[in-house]
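Here is one chain, start to finish.
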Amino acid sequence: MKTINDLAQIIKLWPFHLPDIDHLITRSALFDKTKSKSLKIGIMDTGVDRSHPCFANAKLITKDFSGGSNPVDEIGHGTHCSALLIGHETGRHIGLIPSAELYAAKIIGHHRNGSQHTEKSMVMALKWLIANHVHCIVITLGRHKPSFAIEREIGLAHEKGIIVMASAGNHGGSLPLFPSSIPGVICVSATGKDGLPLPECYTGALVDIFVPGESICSANINHNYSEMSGSSQAAALFCGLLARKLYYYHVL
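Its structure:
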């Protein structure tokens, strides 16, 4: 695994001004889908409903760090973002890296306890992903309060050559959510169908890249599909496309 220490190395490979999600996916289709077969991606979210048909043939490893023992998604957010990565063709949706292995760490349960996805769940999830030698970690949830323990684990991930990216947050405000605010973490925000930054997302100077994130259709719990908008969807899409592009150029 090669280490990328310079964020500019990553960003210079990326087409900045993509007008919409269709163009985004069309560009990704230039790459052979089989090239994703040895990629290992980590995601930290609400878990995955692996009974959804789009995950029938997926390489999906799940673990619950939310304080329970059930890695199944009870909210839908994690399923939605995960399907953007490894969802298989069901007639309505296919992920950007369907042959990759996805390690899905559940850091929030249905209770959504405000302290439930703070240091303990996030630190344990990061340790698990690092131990499994993933190439990229996408954190599609965040928190307002910084944490030295979480930042330390992300630093260890960087030392292992793991690329870490996180959603900027959908709260607006003057600062992005932690850990997207950490130097070295790629801070991803979203644009709308008009190509402009989504006003509900953080769009300030700490954003590293904007990716389409409005009305993104993907899998949801209970075998459903739904549209969601925000920096989480943008971060998942960026993770998939970045992993494929860096793999294509033999960086991963």
